[in-house]
Amino acid sequence: MEFTDFEDVFVHKLAQQYYIEQELVGTLDEMAINATNDRLSDGFADHRDETRTQVGRIEDVFAALDRPAEARDAPILDALEEERLELEQAITDDDLLNMVYLNAGMMTERVEMTAYEGLSMMADRLEYDRAVTAPLESNYDEEKSTYRELETMATASELKSLWDRLTPS
């Protein structure tokens, strides 16, 4: 693959984010089913539905650029997913698995927030109109909100007993 200009890089990064969002729909569904903490499970299910909307917004960005929507591998997501699956297979304790899921969710949200910040910065530099920038901003805002929810969940009283059980005193 050859990049000849800044727009090529933008489209490449957009295609990677499209891949990420598409893949996360399935991953979030799995984690919603496998998590035994109801709040965590419900949170993953809600974000799965939100992620489906985010996929549509990226398709809108491709349409605004008059390009077909295409997904390109994103090695960072593949690595996070590989680690999650490896841990999932090695863990038999439900509480420990819930904590792994919580951490995986937080890591993924950080990656996504950074990706959308970069895409928004590039879109601004390329002087794209709101048809391109608004969907990216909406997705970023949702990722940031989800991260805050996970962060709150990590300190919530209902999960405090899990932390107490899982960590040495």
From TrEMBL:
<dbReference type="InterPro" id="IPR047114">
    <property type="entry name" value="YciF"/>
</dbReference>
<dbReference type="Pfam" id="PF05974">
    <property type="entry name" value="DUF892"/>
</dbReference>
<protein>
    <submittedName>
        <fullName>Uncharacterized protein</fullName>
    </submittedName>
</protein>
<dbReference type="InterPro" id="IPR009078">
    <property type="entry name" value="Ferritin-like_SF"/>
</dbReference>
<dbReference type="InterPro" id="IPR010287">
    <property type="entry name" value="DUF892_YciF-like"/>
</dbReference>
<dbReference type="InterPro" id="IPR012347">
    <property type="entry name" value="Ferritin-like"/>
</dbReference>
